[in-house]
């Protein structure tokens, strides 16, 4: 395909974007310069561009093989037991400590969910 897709330019643009994202994460850029939808889309779509479109594999520092999901299931079960026993101090402490670790716990009518912030 030679240079039909201008792959070198695409990779160069992605490198520039990674540099800006890293600057944003390190506090060197003002997050207010980006709207929330744009920032959310970057977080969601960037790995897709790298892996699906360019065919590059994204290496993570460590693979948890679902361990985080299992640990969170256990922690949320413990929190639910505390709530059932009306032990609000323990239930709130679990939620607050998870929040400090950038894990957001949301209680709803369909149960408790968590997301990484």
In total, the number of domains comes to 2
Oligomer state of the chains in this structure: single chain
The string of secondary-structure elements, in order, is: HHHHEE
**What is the terminal separation in angstroms?**
40 Å
| Count of alpha and pi helical runs | 4
* Cross-sheet strand order for the largest sheet: 1-2
Please provide the count of β strands: 2
Overall geometry: elongated
Low-pLDDT regions: none
The major beta sheet can be summarized as:
2 strands, antiparallel
Percent of sequence in beta strands: 5-15%
Global mean pLDDT: 78
User: What's the gyration radius in Å?
Assistant: 20 Å
Structural class: mainly alpha
Considering DSSP H and I runs of 4 or more, what fraction of the residues is helical? 55-70%
Question: Could you explain how this protein is built, in words?
Answer:
The chain is mostly helical. The protein has two domains: 7-53, no CATH class; 67-116, no CATH class. Helix content is 58%, strand content 10%. Strands 1-2 form a two-stranded antiparallel ribbon. The mean pLDDT is 78.
Key terms for this structure?
single chain, 117 residues, mainly alpha, elongated
């Amino acid at each position: 395909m030679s240079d039909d897709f201008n792959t070198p330019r695409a990779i160069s643009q992605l490198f520039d974007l990674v540099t800006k994202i890293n600057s944003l994460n390190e506090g060197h850029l003002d997050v207010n310069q980006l709207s929330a939808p744009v920032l959310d889309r970057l977080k969601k779509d960037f790995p897709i561009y790298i892996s699906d479109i360019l065919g590059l594999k994204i290496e993570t520092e460590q693979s948890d093989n679902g361990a985080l999901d299992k640990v969170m299931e256990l922690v949320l079960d413990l929190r639910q037991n505390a709530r059932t026993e009306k032990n609000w101090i323990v239930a709130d402490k679990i939620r607050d400590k998870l929040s400090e670790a950038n894990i957001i716990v949301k209680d709803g009518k369909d149960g408790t969910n968590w997301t990484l912030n």
